[in-house]
Write a structure and sequence with these properties.
about 230 residues, alpha+beta, Jelly Rolls, 2 domains, five-stranded mixed beta sheet, four-stranded antiparallel beta sheet, about 20% helix
C-alpha cells in the first residue's frame, strides 16, 4: 500500500484556489547530508529546507529541530515518493513517516528506523502548506541536528564492561579453587611402611564343602587349637 506506513495530509491548495488567494512562495533549499549534521537555519515565511539522506533498511536516523526565534514550524520526514508529492503543487495529498513528523511545533526530536532502503528527506517547513500545520507568517530561526547509523549508549557500554569483568574474575576464582583442591589431594602422603610390616589382610573365604555334601551344607570352621 502506498501510504501504509504514513499519514495523509490535505493541502490548503483547494482552499486557496477557491478563495482566489495566491499560494505562498515555497522556495526550495535542499542539501544531502553525511552521517552527521548540525546548523542554525533561518527560514523566511513561505520557505522550507530539506536534508536528504540515504538510509538502508532498519538504519537508525536521529534528529532534532528547535525554534530559537520566531514562530512554530512543521517538521516532516519523507521517503522519496512522499517528498516528490510534497514538492508537487498540484498534489492535494502527500504522505510522511509518522514517527519522524510533527506539525506546528517549536521543538521536536525523534529516532526513527528506516522502514526500507531509500533516500529520505528531513524537511523544516515554514509555509502554510498543510491545514493542520504552522501558518508560516514570519521568519523563524531553527537549530537543526541529525545523525545516521547505529549508536550505543555510553551507559550500556559501562554496564557491559562491568559484566564482562565480573565474569572473568569469577572464572579465574573457580579455576584457582579447583587447582587448590587438586593440590591438597595430591599432598596427602601414602601410609607408612617398614620392613616386616604386615601387608593388607585378604578377605576371609568361606570353607569349601567336601565332595558329596548335601545342598546347603556348610562345614563348621576349624576349632582353635587347645593350649
Amino acid at each position: 500500500m502506498r501510504y501504509a506506513a504514513t499519514t495523509v495530509l490535505v493541502l490548503l491548495l483547494a482552499g486557496f484556489l477557491a478563495a482566489g488567494v495566491a499560494l505562498p512562495a515555497h522556495a526550495q533549499m535542499e542539501t544531502m547530508m553525511g552521517s552527521t549534521m548540525s546548523e542554525t537555519l533561518t527560514l523566511p515565511a513561505g520557505e522550507y529546507k530539506a536534508y536528504g539522506v540515504s538510509l538502508y533498511n532498519g538504519e537508525m536516523f536521529r534528529f532534532s529541530a528547535r525554534v530559537a526565534a520566531g514562530g512554530p514550524v512543521d517538521v516532516y520526514l519523507f521517503n522519496a515518493t512522499n517528498y516528490a508529492d510534497y514538492q508537487d503543487p498540484m498534489k492535494l495529498m502527500f504522505g510522511y513517516v509518522h514517527a519522524g513528523t510533527q506539525e506546528d511545533t517549536m521543538s521536536f526530536s525523534s529516532s526513527v528506523r528506516a522502514p526500507g532502503a531509500d533516500t529520505y528527506y528531513l524537511v523544516i517547513d515554514n509555509a502554510a502548506i498543510s491545514s493542520s500545520g504552522a501558518m508560516g507568517t514570519g521568519t523563524s530561526t531553527v537549530q537543526v541536528s541529525a545523525q545516521t547509523g547505529e549508536t550505543v549508549d555510553s551507559g550500556l557500554i559501562v554496564v557491559a564492561a562491568v559484566v564482562v569483568v565480573c565474569l572473568a574474575v569469577g572464572s579465574i576464582l573457580i579455576v584457582l579453587s579447583v587447582r587448590r583442591q587438586r593440590r591438597k589431594a595430591a599432598a596427602v602422603p601414602p601410609p607408612p611402611t617398614w620392613p616386616g610390616a604386615p601387608g593388607p589382610v585378604p578377605p576371609q573365604q568361606p570353607p569349601i564343602p567336601p565332595p558329596g555334601s548335601p545342598p546347603g551344607y556348610r562345614p563348621l570352621p576349624p576349632s582353635p587349637p587347645r593350649t
